[in-house]
From TrEMBL:
It comes from the Bacteria. Transmembrane segments: none annotated. Pfam families: PP2C_2. This is Serine/threonine protein phosphatase PstP. It comes from Bailinhaonella thermotolerans.
Length: 268
């Protein structure tokens, strides 16, 4: 909370199959307090199922939380939601062996006035635009990122590496993966972007910065980002959520405002 009023989130969400994939294996979820992007693992069994399961777990978490999150441990709650997603993947694969090996990335935020918990596993990303500067607020759990961290590869080479999407950590039916969990403080005017690597792997950070800075309308910003990824070849599914932190004088109701996109919105 600020001295003048309450902080709330305004958001837009979009997802596109891209130009080279037959199915959209991404899923997204957005509500006034919980937002997430999940990218089903390409080349593995039932990636669209995995991302939908992860999003469903977070939707259920959202439904089960009290309306007032003032006394809730946001990190613990979000961690429990990710753990539930992991358990659901395992249980589903045990009941249906054809789904063995499915997996998904997950980047999610759980919000309450001025406080934001962030959970992240895989190579979907979270960005923050604040005071005119764009920051990547997640770390890719990929082989090439680990080489960059160890000083064995420079970022420019990593961005072009043929195995840059090889994940070292993800939510999978075959094992558990601990997400990165962090608490963040937000301020009025912050703009966040959650996206799958179908966007961040094609559109350069400088262009992301330009769109997020110049395009005020959230829906239009989402459309422009998806268009740019497709103009860059659209090699993968593209999903993004644009979130603005705004100051209000009275809280808005938190019912009936959920949005689903991608596989989660179009179950097979």
């Amino acid at each position: 909370m600020t001295d003048n009023g309450l902080l709330e989130l305004r958001y837009a969400v979009g997802s596109d199959t891209g130009l080279r994939r037959e199915l959209n294996e991404d899923s997204a979820y957005a509500s006034p307090r919980l937002l997430a992007v999940a990218d089903g693992m390409g080349g593995h069994a039932a990636g669209e199922v995995a991302s939908s399961v992860a999003v469903a777990a977070l939707s259920d978490l959202d439904d089960g939380l009290p309306e007032d999150l003032g006394g809730v441990d946001l990190i613990a709650a979000l961690s429990a939601g990710v753990a539930d997603a992991s358990h659901r993947l395992k249980d589903l694969a045990e009941r249906n062996p054809s789904l063995e090996g499915m997996g998904t990335t997950l980047t999610a935020v759980l919000w309450h006035d001025g406080r934001m918990a962030l959970a992240h596993v895989g190579d979907s990303r979270g960005y923050l635009l604040r005071d005119g500067k764009l920051y990547q607020i997640t770390r890719d759990h990929t082989l090439v990122q680990s080489l960059v961290d160890d000083g064995r590869m420079d970022p420019e080479r990593a961005a072009e590496h043929p195995r840059r999407s090889m994940l070292m950590r993800a939510l999978q039916s075959t094992g558990s993966a601990e997400p990165d969990l962090v608490m963040r403080t937000v301020v009025p005017g912050d703009r966040y972007l959650l996206c799958s690597d179908g966007l961040s792997g094609v559109v350069q950070p400088e262009t992301l910065h330009e769109i997020l800075t110049d395009v005020d309308d959230r829906e239009e910003a989402v459309r422009r980002l998806i268009e740019l990824a497709n103009q860059g070849g659209g090699p993968d599914n593209i999903t993004c959520v644009v979130i603005d932190v705004v100051e209000v004088t009275r809280p808005a109701p938190h019912t009936g405002e959920k949005s689903l996109a991608g596989a989660a919105a179009n179950p097979r």
